[in-house]
Every structure is written in structure tokens, then in C-alpha cells.
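REQUEST FORM: STRUCTURE PREDICTION
Request ID: SP-0412
Submitted by: Lab K.M.
Chain count: 1
Length (residues): 292
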Amino acid sequence: MKKAYIFPGQGAQFVGMGKELYSSAAQSKALFEQANAILGFRITDLMFEGTDESLKQTNVTQPAIFLHSVVLAKSLGDFAPDMAAGHSLGEFSALVAAGAVSFEDGLKLVAQRAQAMQKACEKEPSTMAAILGLADEVVEKICDEVDEVVVAANYNCPGQLVISGSMKGVELACEKLTAAGAKRALKLNVGGAFHSPLMEPAKVELEAAIAATRFNAPRCPIYQNVDAKPQTDPEAIKKNLIAQLTAPVRWTQIVQNMLADGAGHFVELGPGNVLQGLVKKLNRDAATEGIQ
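STATUS: Completed
RESULT:
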């Protein structure tokens, strides 16, 4: 039975995340302090003792979750998974944990990504919404029919899809999806329309940063968000990371492909347990574990 390591994305954060890890080992503490120096502010203060509101800001949330996840992976010693994947931001955590990118370069990329996404969000009011109880094809069709920017953004598990777009686009889509029989159409408390065409300015900015960063072949295949396929080629990984900003997260397909490739034990590294729950919805027999 193969072991798959999975890394959470934005939304998994909580005040106090990583505090015990910081206190428990000198190596972990050194990595947290290195991150403070790289970022130019004490992100650990916000992670350990901050407020929900401060931790929710995209330029804090993304590096905080990345940092927590990667330090956890490094604390495991000989980290050699059979396969790995991350949800949106979590893909960067997976790549650093698997040795494709250095800790320093990965953190810098995540910080640049977060800042670029935040700037893109400030240009036009936008949002996301979780749609429960409808088939993916129905959600896609209705989004296509709305004469505003709105797209399928996160394929989380069957019957749970997140849409993303302009305020008006998401509002109109939610009305139509509710009329079509959605159990819930719930607007999310997020900074903007991630994984939608509205992230194009951030994509352009991130492309230059990724192109200038050294990537190596990871120690195991990384199942990437854009196409849900396992990848080890550094140039292909970089291309997919750039495309990820405006493309949907295909988490359902990632887990299905991991299961088909022999994964039977999924370990979530980082804050929260959302990904474990999604795995169980796709295969109740799969073993899941969380390390925080």
C-alpha cells in the first residue's frame, strides 16, 4: 500500500498553528526564524498569537500555511513519500517538501504569489461560493450561461464544487444553481476570485518569479492541480504552477488518480483536516491521518 502526503491550501489556518512545532525542536524553530528573516516581518507572531482577522489576510495566510506544512515535513526526518499533492497553495508546500524547490525559494515564491493575488483582488471586487449537491457538469453549464465572469474553481469532491468570479457573476450563478436544485450555494469569506480569469494579473507577475527560480526533479511524483496528473519534470512543473492561478483545482481527480496508482494511506501535513475529509468522501476505505 502506497503512502500519499497531501498539503492543505488557504482556509486551513488557525491562530496557534505551528506553535507547538516551534517549541518542540531546534531545527523547526530555526526554520521558523529563517522565514521571519526572509519575509521581513515576524509571521510567527501572527501565527501563534495573532487574531483570526490578521491571519486571514492573503499575504499572511499563504506563507503561514506553507511554513507550517513544510516545517512539519522536514521534522519527519527522511521524508520519502510514494506520491504527494497540495490543494492550490499546498502544491508549493508539496514541491518544497519533496525537494523540487529549496525552502528559501519556495517561501519567496509563495510570498510573491500571495501579494500578487491580493493586488489582483483589489482591482475588482470578486468572490467565491461553495456549491453543494449538484453534479459538476450542471455547475459548469450554468456558469457558462451567466453573462458575467464566473467559473468552476475547485473540484473538491463529488457534489462539492467551488465557483469563482465577479461579485455579480457569483451572485447570478448562485441564484441559478439554487433554482437548479443545489442543496447550498454559500458565498465564502475570501479575499477574491482565486483560480479564475480575474487572477490573470497575478499570473503574469508570478510567471517571471517562477521562471527565475531553480526547480529540481522531486523525490516523488507530484500530482498537480491543473491536470491532476503525476509530474516529475521540472519544466513541466513550472508551467503547471503558472497556469494554476487561473485554472481550476482538480482535487477530485487528483485523489482518484492517486487511488488508481495504489495510494491507500493519505497523510495530511499542515493545519486543519479538510483534505482528509475529502479523501474519505471519495473512498471511505482509504486510511487517513493528519499531522499538525
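NOTES: Residues 103-123 form the longest helix (21 residues).
Reviewed by: T.R.
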